[in-house]
Design goal:
about 750 residues, alpha/beta
Length: about 750
């Protein structure tokens, strides 16, 4: 078993570690099909071997060549560490600077098997969100970090540690770029080749910037999205009894089940990968699991399995004891009668279902469910297209609409390499075809997308509302020929809105976005202290007085912190996320830093955010899809944010091609800022966090967003050093038309 000291000592070469190959019992990345020519294969092998001295190259060459042939990439499985990968307390890392130790803490969290989607392939989430391209890069990076001083900066080129370069104590300790490919060559086909050759990498967002905090981040985003969808589409503040149908339980999408419970609705989530589904159930994020569509429908329609033939009303549970008794009895019947046992003369089946407690028996009619205000997260082991088509069948045959809200969180940014599985094939069959005949697999994926959209379109004719979750679902459906066109719209708009256009865009314009922190002590008590501090900061802001829209967001996030604690959302590092504006972020950072200085928090706290934020991402089909001045396809904001964060105090910065909607579709960046209780850290936080929000609000203001205009004007009043160019409204459309007449 390796130690942290050994892990920081460079590549293990004397002796070479044994090659364990692919681990059994853990999920693995799908086989890639880069389509390399013989010359490109030779180049890929040469590129991998250059990490190693001559005396071991002859041994490693055939091994790496086999990985390339079998998996489409050289991961260097031999060098996968044999120690438990997790976020160890910061004081345990053998480093010369606290910043370096904090970065190591974050890297190892991204590779923790409890956090990472495909840990042995160094994929954190999204199917292809790499932390590194291979394990040699991991070993070298850890070694460099352990050596680094306050007058050096580690430079990372798409997973490759270029080296330590002299810099100043005020400079970032780490600068990361991922996927910075010349635009004309930033295509999926080129990417697959470049990644196989080991020269670029898809870092998603927080995978390659070392800032992922497990699925908690997307739980929070999904909670806010579904809450605001209910307000906008259904006109309700309380989602009790409302049904939300979606797909995806692996990686980030695994958060949807927990989010459904927190907002208090009925969530049905489809997932084709049984391992991903059961992982969420074992974590307690899914209340029930079934592989039966009949059960999914019954679960939405009936309050109780035990019905007699003439009974019209569900039998209520008067006490918890009664419920427990019925639960035990149902388990007995289930075991005695088997998977498809039948009860009496009713003909009601008991499909295979895994349940957490007696709440699994509360299966009321959908109209009764709304009265009972039932909360449920049900995982369906199967393809979401089957689920959507079954909901259409129920609507067409019974007239009953069993769903209120819908979305999709498959990894559609990567649809032909394991991000989306076609309904025509089972999971294993699809993986086989993906590797053996990529063209045929692509055809099936696109047919499946057309079927999925067709079913959603039918439901949307009723009182059902669907949105794109920023995973490129509608973009890929359009490319597949599905009916998603919105007549008269620009090219970033579809028949259904993205969640940014209708739901989260207004939040970004107010300066709110996914602010997060990690307690590097690894102590849950430190996280509890930060939760209380953050809550008190937001409550104080409300008491002083804020505008109604800001107050609503603060209240949502106070509720979120309380729910997050109650639902035990920590997976991996001791981390928390909330949505806050510029004032809130700065005030929270100052409160944390002062608490560290006073010893109330035992170790440094890393501040960060999702790249999916006010200023961090230029993405015309997601984060900037509600920008209508023609600049949605421009990336100045994200690049300027990366540069501005670097010289305003960030401990590390990252800039990526891809993330969310896919390679070549987005430029995004992020940061890490270590709070250590010093006055210098406080000043950096004030300066950097203010820029990190105001940049995006100013850009959204210039594009014509009225809410952003109001916020940036208020910010200028608060800080006289901030001077932003404001747009003049062009209100007379007739003047434009007249001026352009030939």
């Amino acid at each position: 078993m390796s130690s942290l000291q050994a892990l920081c000592s460079g590549l293990p070469l004397q002796p070479l570690p044994e090659n364990p190959g692919r681990w059994a019992g853990v999920p693995h990345a799908p086989v890639r099909t880069p389509g390399l020519s013989p010359a490109e294969e030779q180049l890929a092998l040469r590129n991998a071997l250059r990490y190693f001295p001559l005396d071991v190259q002859e041994l490693l060459a055939p091994e790496f060549a086999q990985e390339l042939r079998l998996y489409g990439h050289i991961y260097m499985y031999r060098f996968c560490p044999d120690m438990k990968m997790r976020a160890y307390p910061i004081d345990q890392y053998p480093c010369r600077t606290r910043a370096a130790a904090a970065i190591m803490h974050m890297i190892m969290n991204n590779l923790d098997p409890a956090v990472a989607q495909f840990p042995q392939e160094l994929v954190t989430y999204g199917g292809n969100g790499q932390v590194f391209s291979n394990w040699a890069q991991f070993w070298l990076t850890m070694s460099y970090l352990s050596q680094m001083t306050e007058e050096q900066t580690l430079v990372m080129y798409s997973g490759h540690p270029l080296g330590l370069f002299p810099s100043s104590p005020q400079a970032p300790r780490l600068v990361i770029t991922n996927g910075m490919v010349i635009p004309n060559y930033s295509s999926r086909t080129e990417y697959e080749k470049l990644f196989a050759m080991g020269v670029t990498m898809y870092g998603q967002m927080t995978a390659g910037s070392y800032c992922y905090i497990g699925p908690q981040g997307i739980v929070h985003g999904t909670v806010l999205t579904v809450l605001n969808a209910g307000r906008r589409y259904l006109g309700v503040k309380d989602l009790s009894g409302k049904v939300f149908v979606t797909s995806g339980l692996g990686g980030m999408s695994g958060a949807q089940a927990k989010a459904a419970v927190i907002v208090g609705c009925i969530g049905v989530i489809a997932e084709v990968d049984k391992a991903a589904l059961m992982k969420r159930h074992e974590q307690g994020w899914l209340m029930e699991v079934t592989d039966s569509l009949d059960h999914c429908i019954e679960r939405l329609r009936y309050s109780q399995i035990f019905l007699t033939e003439g009974l019209k009303q569900p039998v209520g549970f008067s006490t918890l004891l009664t419920a427990l008794g019925l639960y035990a009895f149902s388990c007995f019947l289930f075991l005695a009668l088997g998977r498809e046992g039948r009860i009496g003369s009713t003909g009601i089946s008991l499909p295979r279902v895994v349940c957490n407690g007696p709440s699994a028996l509360l299966l009321c009619p959908s109209r009764e469910a709304r009265k009972r205000k039932e909360v449920l997260s049900l995982g369906y082991h199967g393809n979401v297209v089957d689920l959507w088509e079954r909901l259409v069948h129920e609507l067409d045959t019974t007239g009953e609409l069993l769903v209120d809200l819908g979305s999709d969180q498959t990894s559609c940014h990567n649809p032909f390499n394991g991000g989306y599985y076609p309904v025509q094939l089972g999971f294993a069959e699809a993986q086989s075809l993906m590797a053996s005949d990529p063209a045929a697999f692509k055809d099936l994926v696109q047919e499946s997308l057309r079927r999925q959209v067709s079913a959603i379109n039918r439901l949307a004719k009723e009182n059902f509302f669907f949105w794109d979750y920023g995973n490129a679902f509608l973009l890929e459906a359009q490319r597949a020929g599905a009916d998603v066109e919105k007549k008269g719209a620009n090219k970033t708009e579809f028949r259904y809105p993205s969640y940014v256009q209708h739901i989260m865009g207004d939040i970004f314009s107010l300066g709110f976005g996914p602010f997060r922190w990690v307690c590097t002590s690894g102590d849950p008590q430190d996280l509890a202290v930060t939760d209380k501090l953050a809550t008190s900061v937001l409550e104080e802001a409300i008491s002083v007085g804020v505008n109604p829209a800001v107050k609503l967001q603060y209240m949502d996030n106070i509720r979120w912190i309380r729910e997050a604690t109650k639902h035990q959302l920590v997976v991996g590092s001791q981390a928390r996320i909330l949505y806050s504006d510029q004032k809130g972020r700065v005030a929270i950072a100052v409160a944390f830093n002062q608490a560290i200085a006073r010893g109330k928090i035992k170790a440094p706290v890393v501040l960060s955010r999702d790249h999916h934020d006010v200023s961090g991402t230029d993405s015309p089909f997601r984060e900037t899809s509600n920008i209508y001045d023609g600049s949605a396809f421009c990336a100045d904001m994200a690049v300027q944010n990366f540069v501005g964060d670097a010289f305003r105090g960030a401990t590390w910065v990252a800039l990526h091609n891809g993330g969310g909607v896919g390679w070549g579709e987005v430029i995004n960046g992020g940061f890490g800022l270590v709070l250590d209780g010093t006055q210098e850290a406080e000043q950096k936080a004030k300066m950097m966090l203010s820029w990190d929000v105001s940049n995006g609000v100013a850009r959204r203001c210039w594009s014509g967003n009225r809410k952003a205009y109001e916020i940036i004007c208020q910010t200028m009043q608060d800080n006289k050093d901030l001077v932003v160019t404001l747009p003049h409204e062009v209100a007379d459309e007739r003047m434009l038309q007249q001026a352009l007449r030939p």
